[in-house]
Amino acid sequence: DAKTTQPPSMDCAEGRAANLPCNHSTISGNEYVYWYRQIHSQGPQYIIHGLKNNETNEMASLIITEDRKSSTLILPHATLRDTAVYYCIVRVDSGNTPLVFGKGTRLSVIA
Amino acid sequence: EADIYQTPRYLVIGTGKKITLECSQTMGHDKMYWYQQDPGMELHLIHYSYGVNSTEKGDLSSESTVSRIRTEHFPLTLESARPSHTSQYLCASRGQVVDTQYFGPGTRLTVL
After folding, report:
1. CB contacts, 8 Å: A38 with chain B
2. What angle do CA A32, A7, A68 make, to 5 degrees?
3. For residues A35 and B76, what is the distance between their CA atoms, to the nearest angstrom?
4. In whole angstroms, what is the distance from residue B24 CA to residue B41 CA?
5. In this complex, is the C-beta atom of A102 within 8 Å of any C-beta atom belonging to chain B?
6. What contacts A86, CB < 8 A, 6 or more positions away?
7. Per-residue confidence band for A98, with pLDDT thresholds at 50, 70 and 90
8. Can you say whether the dihedral through the CA atoms of A35, B104, B25, A2 is positive or negative?
9. pLDDT tens digits along B24-43
10. Dist. CA B64–CA B111, nearest whole Å
């Protein structure tokens, strides 16, 4: 699976959009971009994933650049409960290999 | 909400004791995983299973062992606990149709 690079930490004001970047310049054609988050010491929670088209669900939006070398997770109206570590993971969909988590981005939402 | 359970949630135990951390899921998922995470640190994969009678070692070497006799059950055992085993252990499962991993609440283990 391709490697990803994320900033170690970010701050966001409550009610504003949180934009979390991820670089994955070595991504291959059959690899998807997944986002998970981990609130405090709970188990990680799935947020969203995509291949090349932008995706949106009730939690977030995922914007993938046309060359697929980077992506941005957008939380449209961040709340204090969105404070967590956010992981960007690249892997082949429905493959047998487990998810491998990096260091992620620690997002702090500030009142 | 995913139906994946871990017991106990917290365990404090003395050195040398044998312990088993339980993980169960009711979703019929074939693939199950164990991760280890120290406070503030990354998650490390220590074991995984593709299905019944299948077990594989993960990226991080671990003195623990696992078994997969039933689809829904994936227990992790430490034969002789040591203080270096103090950590949080997270279990996860993944189905075939929707490729997302669901995590349990974790077991926080302290070995004195």
Report:
1. 43
2. 30
3. 27
4. 25
5. yes
6. A6, A20, A35, A36, A37, A47, A73, A104, A105, A106, A107
7. confident
8. positive
9. 999 999 999 999 999 889 99
10. 14
Dihedral angle over CA of B40, B103, A31, A34, nearest 10:
-60
Assigned token pair, B37? 């995470």
Q: What is the per-residue pLDDT for A25?
A: 93
pLDDT, mean of residues B81-91 = 96
Looking up tokens 């047998």 gives: A96
Alpha-carbon distance B16 to nearest alpha carbon in chain A (angstroms): 26
Q: Are B35 and B90 in contact (CB under 8 A)?
A: yes
Q: Tell me the backbone φ, ψ of residue A82, rounded to 5 degrees.
A: -85, -5
Tens digit of each residue's pLDDT (9 = 90 or more) over B51-65? 999 999 988 878 899
Of B45, B96, B103, the CB nearest to A44: B103
CB B72 within 8 A of CB B91: no
